[in-house]
Amino acid sequence: MQPLRRTNDRWYPSFHVAAPGGWINDPNGLCFFDGRFHAFFQHHPYSPAWGPMHWGHASSADLLEWREEPIALAPGEPGSDDADGIWSGSAVVHDGTLYAFYTGNRWVNGVDDKDGKFQTQMLATSTDGVHFEKHGAVVPPVNADARDPKVFSHDGRWYMTIGAEVDGRGHVLLYTSEDLYNWFEAGSLFVDPDPNVFMVECPDFFFLDGKWVLIYGPMVRTPIRSGYSLRNGHNVGYVVGSWEPDAQFVPETDFRLLDWGHHFYATQSFAAPNNRRLAFGWMGEFAHPLASREDSWSGQLSLPRELSLSDALTLHCAPAPEIAGLFGPAETHDATLQAGETTTLPPFEEAWLRVTPDLEQPVPLQTNTCEQVVLHLIRDDVPSAHIVFDTLAERIHLVLARGNGAGSGYRSMPWTPGDALGIYLDRGSIELFTADATETLSSLDFLGEGPRTVEIESVAGPVGVNVEVRPLKRG
Ligand code: FRU
């Protein structure tokens, strides 16, 4: 069977990591090895739908230009521990070797999930970052759901977290090793305090700016309304706290969403050179088929984000500084709009925008009746999405327009009125960053084709708007 290749580029990312065709989900095995960044990912090369998982692979010297690499890991022989899929996992680099840890999936009935599954944590190594040798199981199945090994070193020891269901509750289990081959149980690191959470996916535990951060995807029995938060089928967030080896993690914050968008999950971070912690998320969807499947592909990774922790223990997730190098010089547009008035930017394709509404213009804030500034993103004369600066709710909303093949409804993140918003527009995605990057919102956008025009509208009162557009550099 030949791997699929996409049939149309209308929404295929120009500056995000994606497979050449077929399906992808979680970023896996992120690392810096032998002078290059490596992004592996959950991949089904033969269909744009989830199926027997492989690890796809791309690499880059600079986080800007990504090279397509051959598929790194494929399912094993029938009956073997990874016969039905190479599921998510991580990588570490030690003594010139890349160690990749993943979950081997095997269906009990050999066909599907109906009779349960065996999930085994497994190891493969590589000395060139491209070709892998499998070494088999390192942690036997704990129960049906126990997966996504994330390995890190601390104080001269190796540790592995896995997400698991234990007695109906979502746990992060800890293992430890001296040599990366022999692993020993070290208890439960964390239990999600919410009894509605029955399973934890893709835990990622790391030390950052004096605290321990645990990122994970809580899987719930029953979706429960909680305002703007947890709107998706799969949601990822984090808690921050303290940890000493041989003890449980002690959270000092509540669970907080990592990103407010329609499509952001399975975030994985890694230690990059110069003591930086970078992370990628998966932009995709399990619950509803995305329109890009018509073009034989589904899913992309988010922009790489550089993480730091504020004194208030909130994560800042700014685009990695390298990303600025993708874009050309800024074209600046200033406008003063009266209530109901609009202005339209010259058309562009992929771009990075910085938009700053000035609520002190043309009248002082105290007397300004402006309620919203709305950016209508338009292609083929039809709006695909609206970015709403809501000065009363003090939030930014991203509304996917009717007929958008990426989804429906709106997502919303906190915003301080007057602050600048960073907007990254790829062919089929929108990523929003508040000025201090404590809030981000990432969604796909599959409606219309070709260059975008952006119409800016002021609602219910006047406003000054400053827009910087930096188009993507070509070739
Ligand atoms: C999260 C996840 C992981 C699993 C992988 C399978 O998106 O469900 O828990 O390892 O995807 O593709």
Please describe what this structure looks like.
The chain is mainly β and 475 residues long. It contains no helices and 35 strands. Beta-D-fructofuranose (FRU) binds next to strand 1, strand 5, strand 9, strand 13 and strand 18.
Question: Which short descriptors sum up this protein?
Answer:
single chain; 475 residues; mainly beta; 6-stranded antiparallel β-sheet; 0% helix; globular; binds beta-D-fructofuranose
Short synopsis of the structure:
The chain has strands spanning 22-33, 36-44, 54-60, 67-73, 86-94, 97-107, 117-126, 133-139, 146-154, 157-166, 169-177, 183-191, 197-208, 211-220, 237-242, 250-251, 256-257, 265-272, 276-283, 297-298, 300-301, 305-309, 315-319, 331-337, 342-344, 351-358, 372-379, 382-390, 395-400, 410-414, 421-426, 429-434, 440-444, 453-459, 463-471.
> Whole-number average pLDDT?
97
- Please state the CA-atom Rg, rounded to the nearest Å: 22 Å
Bound small molecules, by name, code or SMILES, are:
beta-D-fructofuranose
List the total number of helices: 0
How far apart are the termini?
32 Å
**Uncertain segments:** none
Strand order of the largest sheet: 24-35-26-31-32-33
Taken as a percent bin, the fraction of beta residues is: over 45%
Describe the biggest sheet?
6 strands, antiparallel
What is the β-strand count?
35
> What is the overall shape?
globular
Assign a percent range to the helix content: under 10%
Pfam families: Glyco_hydro_32N (PF00251)
GO molecular function, one term: beta-fructofuranosidase activity
Domain Glycosyl hydrolase family 32 N-terminal: 16-311
Family: Belongs to the glycosyl hydrolase 32 family.
